[in-house]
What we know:
Radius of gyration: 19 Å
Helix content: 25-40%
Number of strands: 13
Distance between the termini: 40 Å
Strand order of the largest sheet: 10-9-8-13-11-12
Number of helices: 11
Largest sheet: 6 strands, mixed
Structural class: alpha/beta
Order of helices and strands: EHEEEHEHEHEHHEHHEEHEHEHE
Amino acid sequence: MVKFIVDSTFGLSREFAEQNGIKVVGLTLMLDGKEYREGFCDEWGDFYCAYAAGKSAAKTSQPSPDIFAQAVEAACTDDADEAIIFTIGDRLSGTIGSAKIAAMQFPNRRVEAIDSHNGGPSSLMFLQEMLKARDEGRNFDELCAYALEIRDRFSTKFVPVTLTELARSGRVSKLISRIGNVLNIKPVFEYRANELTVLYKALGVKRAMQYAVDSIPKDCERIALLYIHDDKFVEQLKERLLSARGLERVDVYPMCPVGGAHIGLGTVGIVTYGGTYVK
């Protein structure tokens, strides 16, 4: 059987991981001298509460190859088991490097490490599509090929409430951060195909959210919302989305702490799968 292993940025709950036989390898964060293991999404509260109460930047670190190797050994309990490791996109973290080194430690077992080209909720939606394919009976080679086929069909558009954390992580300059925060200019970022770009700059969160909704491809197959710890803008964005697309409901997913520490609390966004994008 093909077993899946993912890193903790995918945002799995412990129940979901156990039900689907998925091993989760945790990234770690360091905040005010204390180490936090990212783990499952229902274990993120302690970090986010400490992060919201403090003023320090958090540092993140990727798992070692040995930790990934241990996950492979734990997942593959039968001689016939094969494993595919999926990681956060390498433009966001070097985690795929550790996973690839781990995969090479199993010359007598089929183990592949694949960069998902996604992060946070978009990685989770990518994994959900891979689980469907596995349940349909696709074999190891077919699953590896399918992962490469669909991974760039996901898009994450997000609106940060503040640009401070993005400046700390080097995604925007400190000068742009100061100007944007003072003038209330809210960029709409898009992370797609492992690339981060600025799509639009709006005056205020509401206008930025409306642009994010309006820019969704009409023919996309799935839509979900994301938020970072503080969900105060989620209902507003949900109402705009439901009204614009005539949906009855929409899934809402939290962003992982590794992503949240680099983007900023209160950020909201839209994740889509499929659709035609116009450059």
